[in-house]
């Protein structure tokens, strides 16, 4: 929490105390219905979630204890 601003810390503590309930639109669908509309909704959801992927962390081969 050292990199958070004071406002962020207050908001985080308030969220922690109040709890957070995930909206149904944000959840991963467990079963996708076998129709075009449901598959399209799932594909759009997956596309939005994929935007959060930050890529792979580069591997730095340095030091004494690395192996391939």
The description of the largest β-sheet is: none
Q: Report the mean per-residue pLDDT as an integer.
A: 78
Q: Strand percentage, roughly?
A: under 5%
- Pairing-aware structural class of the strands and helices? mainly alpha
Task: Report the count of strand segments.
Answer: 0
Termini distance?
34 Å
Parts with pLDDT < 50 across at least 5 consecutive residues: none
Question: Oligomeric state of the chains?
Answer: single chain
* H/E topology pattern: HH
Total count of helical runs of at least 4 residues = 2
Overall form? flat
Helix content: 40-55%
Rg calc: 20 Å
Summarize the structure.
This protein is an all-alpha fold and 68 residues long.
Can you describe what's shown?
With 68 residues, the protein is mostly helical. The chain has a domain of 45 residues. 41% of the residues lie in helices and 0% in strands. The mean pLDDT is 78.
Please describe the structure with a list of short key phrases separated by commas or semicolons.
68 residues, mainly alpha
Outline the fold blueprint.
Elements: H1 6-18, H2 36-50
């Amino acid at each position: 929490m050292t990199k958070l601003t004071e406002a962020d810390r207050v908001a985080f503590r308030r969220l922690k105390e109040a709890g957070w309930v995930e909206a149904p639109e944000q959840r991963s669908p467990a079963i996708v219905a076998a129709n075009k509309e449901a598959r399209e909704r799932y594909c759009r959801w997956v596309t939005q979630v994929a935007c959060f992927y930050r890529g792979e962390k580069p591997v730095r081969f340095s030091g004494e204890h690395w192996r391939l």
